[in-house]
Amino acid sequence: MVGAEPLIEKRRWLSPVWLLPLIALLLAGGFLYQQVVSRGQLIEINFAQGNGILPGKTQIRYQGVAIGIVQDLELADDGRKIAVLAKIDSQARSLMRKGSEFWLVSPRASLTEISGLDTLVSGNYINVQPGQESNPPEETFEALEGPPPGYQAQGRVLHLTADSLGSIGIGAKLYFRGIEVGSVINTRLGKDNQHVLLDVVIEPRFEHLVKADTRFWNISGIKSSFSLAGVSVEAGSLSSILSGGIAFDSPNASPESEKGQIFVLYKGLAEAARGERIEILAGDLAIKEGMPILYEGIEIGRIDPVRLTDKGRVVTALFNPEQAYRITDNSQLIWESASLSPAGVKHTDRLLTGPAIRLDYKPGNLTQTLALIDRATPIGTKVVLRADDLTGLSQDAPIWYKGLQVGQISQLVLDSEGQARVELHIAPDYGHLLKGARFYRATPLLINADLSGIKVETSPVSTWLAGGISLVQVPNSEQLSYLYPSQELALLGSRANKPRQWILQAAQADGIGVGSPVLYLGLEAGKVSALRAGKEGVEVVLAINAAYAPLLAQQPQFWKKPALETQFRLDGVEVKVGNLATLLRGAIEFDELANGHSSHQLFESKAQAQAKVRTVSLVADSNPGLKIGSPIRYRGVDIGHVEQIMLQPSMGQVMFKAALNAQYAARFLQSGARFNLVEAKVGLGGIAHLDTLVKGAFIDAEPGKGASRDQFPLSQHEPVGLALTLTSRAVDGLAIGSPLLFRKMVVGSVTNIELARDGSEIVVAVNIQQEYAHLVRANSRFWNVSGVKADIGLTGGTIEVETVQSLLAGGIAFTTPEQEMGSTVKANHRYPLHSKAQKEWLEWNPRIAP
């Protein structure tokens, strides 16, 4: 617009647009600064080998925190090592200074420790321990083979020097009085290459134990020495055997050690020569230099070299100083060596290590002299018992109460008058058991058997060989100072001295004589004092010891004890042999057997004494092979036995006196009962009752149903159904046992063959089994089928064999006509025995109903 005044606006000198480049510049600068600050530091670490180090994966760690990572691996300039190039985070650059130490951490297992298990998950890594803060920065380092000495050690680090390392290695434990207080953290050669230096660390709570005069000694592995005196073996704990160990002492009067003090590591306690020395009164015991002194199985001292002076032999021992308080006037040194006894071998470890000395510590006043004894003085209440004899007992044998050992036999004594005594010691904790106590010999094996079952009680194995004594309490009674042979007698408590006479009646006195022992449960309770003829046999006079006399009131049964017991079975022969006295003199046993017999009867065996029996008499023309003891059976079960074999007064027959078990006897002592001899039969016709070849013949009984009867004939043939008599002109191959055939089926057998009195014919007795007896009728025909029948002519021939059995053992066949078979026959009916069958007989096909 013309004439208008111009509008003047005042503009700013800097536009806001320029702020954007400025901000971008600031951001770029910050980014550059951040890159410079965080770029880290590249260092080189030289390792002997690069196994387990992976570029981009293996970390550099400090105090468990990753501060860098391996970038690359290359051969070092010298060509002998591997240069590991690692990038260190910027915040850790200050740790990379001179003196910093690097080592590879990987899984490691040894006998004493397992380390680096975390690398199984994260992989191997390189650990760093920085040098001193005042040291200048460094970029090239030499790696260590393992952690530096004292790394992360919590406690005081000590240095030991020794001539050789021996079996001690890194990780070996440091012990004070058997307590682990530290370990070996490093081993290396000294500067002169003539000694070994060991760096050990002691836990802070045990640092005060290290004194200026402390001595360290090696307790590693097993140390042994061999000489004519025996074998000396020194062994520490299992850990020290495997990886080594060091022990040390802490003298009370010594000041604390200075830092940096180097100690000597001695080869052993003897070389360290540290401890309390005492004098030992060894007497005649063969004590030798170096013998260990043990307390609760731990060596606390050792014998010094034995010296001979004008006063005689001088024996001293060096004790660990911390154990010196156990050397009191009440303590005892006890000689221990391997010893053989009926109970076994004691201190078997001494067979290898040789004798040792055991300290039996008891509080008291300290002393500088101790006596060495060959056995410890028993403790507890002393009891002295009188005994008939000391057989089977031994010193140190145990005393038992309800299966628990409560003491031991301390001494066996035989005085000038020949009286035997046993000295016992009951342990202090069991002294109250002596009230009303009675003692008896511990029986190794006790068996009680009755109809309700069998009860077996055994003592501990030690009593089987070494013997032992048991204790039983009898309420409201006083303790009796006598050793009883058995528990039963201890409960009875009788102790009279005069034997009691007891008279037995016996059929004969074979097997026993004057002086034969009388046994009760295997213990000698008396003896046979006399034998004399009685009204009905022999009177056996016994003298029963007074201790066993109360048993006679219980009506015991007496029987002869065989010197040799033999039992024949199909699976073998069992033989039991008694002791030498029984073999030479015989013996009698007795026990309480509730069978109602008189206690004045002497039985031939225990089985007879136990059984309730009834007598039966069997008569035969001769003895077919039976003997005393041959069994009588019914359906395979023993129901009795033969007790006596004699001739009848007329001497025409033999009579067998047999005993039947009372619970079965009634049915077999009736008319109709049968007693048949069973013995082995071996022939071409077969084998029967083969077991009797081993066990002997026996009598098979069949019960009766008639009136009471106690005498029967003894049949020497098996029971038959129907007995028949056949007559023939000749035997023609027949024999006892030959089969009797019907339709070639065995239905009986030949039981006897004999010549007629006038010699005119052969009489053959046969038996038909009861179930086939109805097949025999009055018109039946019998013919011989023994061997082979041959009919040979010019036009040909025939050969006939009835059965294989008849070919071998002979045989008789019979048949009955279809028509006019006739009536049934009675026993012993007579038939002619034809030499062969007629043709028409063979065509008969009868059907005969029973």
From TrEMBL:
A Pfam cross-reference name: MlaD
Localization per Swiss-Prot or TrEMBL: Cell inner membrane
Keywords carried by this UniProt record: Cell inner membrane, Cell membrane, Membrane, Transmembrane, Transmembrane helix
Domain Mce/MlaD: 40-131, 155-218, 287-359, 381-435, 504-554, 615-704, 724-781
A GO cellular component entry from the record: plasma membrane
Keyword Nucleotide-binding tagged: no
Regions that span the bilayer: 12-33
Stretch forming the signal peptide: none
Protein name (Swiss-Prot/TrEMBL): Mammalian cell entry protein
